[in-house]
Amino acid sequence: MQSFGEMQSMATNIFSAYASVAASMMLYRSMVNDIIPEPVKAFFYSTFNRFFKSFFDRFFGKLSTHMTVVVDEQNGFTRNQIYDAAEIYLRTIINPDAERLKANKTTKQKNISLSMEKGQELTDFYKDFQLKWQFILVEPDGDKGRFQSEKRYFELTFEKQNKDTVLNDYLPFVLAKAKEMKENERAVKLYTRDCPFDNNDDDDGGGNGGGYWGCVNLDHPATFDKLAMDPNMKRAIVEDLDRFVRRKDYYRKVGKAWKRGYLLYGPPGTGKSSLIAAIANYLRFDVYDLELTSVYSNSELRRILLCTNNKSILVIEDIDCSGQMHDRERDTQSEHEDSSNTKLTLSGLLNFIDGLWSTCGDERIIIFTTNHKEKLDPALLRPGRMDMHIHMGYCTPEGFDVLASNYLGINDHHRLVPEIKRLIREVEITPAEIAEHLMRSEDVDLALEGVVDLLKQKGEAKKNETPDDQKKCDVEENKSDEGVDQGKKRKFRGIMKDLTKFRRRRGIGKGKML
Ligand SMILES: Nc1ncnc2c1ncn2[C@@H]1O[C@H](COP(=O)(O)OP(=O)(O)OP(=O)(O)O)[C@@H](O)[C@H]1O
Ligand SMILES: [Mg+2]
């Protein structure tokens, strides 16, 4: 071991050697200045400086107990992920009372974010030690030509003894934290096939689904808290979703595609679409709303589905109308006889969802909705097809509490609430109907009186119903469903005709994409 005195005298010797070399250099410099061309001179000086800088850094670095990791913004031509992550992560430890801060907001961000100023330092604590981040910004140095553009980087300084923990634990922690924060800031998107907009300005490779999908931000306010539904069912769904997203390794281990399927069924206005929005907001997954009537063939469906991103929910509403898929085969038989095997069929859809598509992506959720579970093709209901069947039913007294607190900001202390709850037990009323009445007046008494009147009317109508009326009602309901189905079929046929005309006009052959 060298003593401090020895080291000091060694440093003094090195300094004097450097001084004498530098003096000689000055002399030579003036002599050769006129005869050596400029580029050769520049190369010579920079090599000389670099040599002495690295020598001194190494010498004095040995004496320091700290080390510094430089996190450059760019790694060659690509961005350095650690730099981007640090920029996001440091917002969490930035002191909002600091004397100088930078405030930023991009169109993609929901909130204003704070960032570090040039030269600013931040202290972080990880496990039982301290780290220091410093933001460095080197401005272009014009004529000298070393930095043509701004150079940004962070210097992360910590005690040498913590090197392994910093590299193996702390930096991965920063990366993970930043990823989570970015995910939470990102707006959830709604993709549809007929949307003319493409608001996807994500830089995560999201794209616009190969041109098959247009998207807008899904600014749907639905959350699980605001949903009026069976509390046990609500809890079971949230637990199922949580289990699903944290089980990546498990799915891999058992050799199953990382996907989950839900079937939502129940009368109109019971909250099936609201539940889908609540799931999307909860998981921050994008929603792909697929209208099957706009899909012509199995192969087209495959292409459309392959253009969806991970961490997404594929929604197919009113799947009971899938019977039309078989009709569609017949409808178009004459025009596309030799391509009947490519027509869209329920089995084509299910095979693809179960097979190839689900294995080429991660974290996929598929949701089918229907008003008539009993009308569904048995292929959809067979065990293992949909992981959870969720019944969205008529409003319950507990459901009313949620709606009342949501729409009027009241709890069950209001004088009319017990009566409303009693009436709700006696009639079938959807949350949508109640919600609509609660919104009719800002005056709480008036709004609740409206709900009481509605419930009483429903109760009276039910009392006056004879068994024959009930039968007639069922038949009419079926008829009106038929009407809806017929309407949907008509709409579908119209689309198919337009498609065929369009293909002919553009000279597109059978089975080809538009
Ligand atoms: N369970 C619920 N909780 C809270 N609000 C609800 C619920 N059900 C319906 N609503 C209200 O009624 C409106 C319509 O509901 P929603 O579209 O979710 O019903 P749906 O079951 O999807 O109906 P459909 O079968 O016709 O598609 C919602 O915007 C919401 O305001
Ligand atoms: Mg709906």
TrEMBL record:
Catalysis performed (reactions): ATP + H2O = ADP + phosphate + H(+)
Cofactors that this protein relies on: Mg(2+)
Any GO MF annotation of the entry: ATP hydrolysis activity
Keyword Methyltransferase: no
PROSITE patterns in the record: AAA
Coiled coil location: none
GO biological process: response to stress
CDD domains: RecA-like_BCS1
Alphabetized Pfam families for the sequence: AAA (PF00004), AAA_assoc (PF14363), AAA_lid_At3g28540 (PF25568)
Region (Disordered): 459-490
UniProt keyword list: ATP-binding, Hydrolase, Magnesium, Nucleotide-binding
Gene3D superfamilies registered for this protein in UniProt: 6.10.280.40, P-loop containing nucleotide triphosphate hydrolases
Keyword check for ATP-binding: yes
UniProt xrefs under InterPro entries: AAA+_ATPase, AAA_N_dom, At3g28540-like_C, ATPase_AAA_core, ATPase_AAA_CS, Mitochondrial_chaperone_BCS1, P-loop_NTPase
Compositionally biased residues, Basic and acidic residues: 459-487
Recorded superkingdom: Eukaryota
Domain AAA+ ATPase: 258-396
Family: Belongs to the AAA ATPase family. BCS1 subfamily.
Designated name of the protein: AAA-ATPase At2g18193-like
Organism of provenance: Sesamum indicum
Gene label: LOC105165761
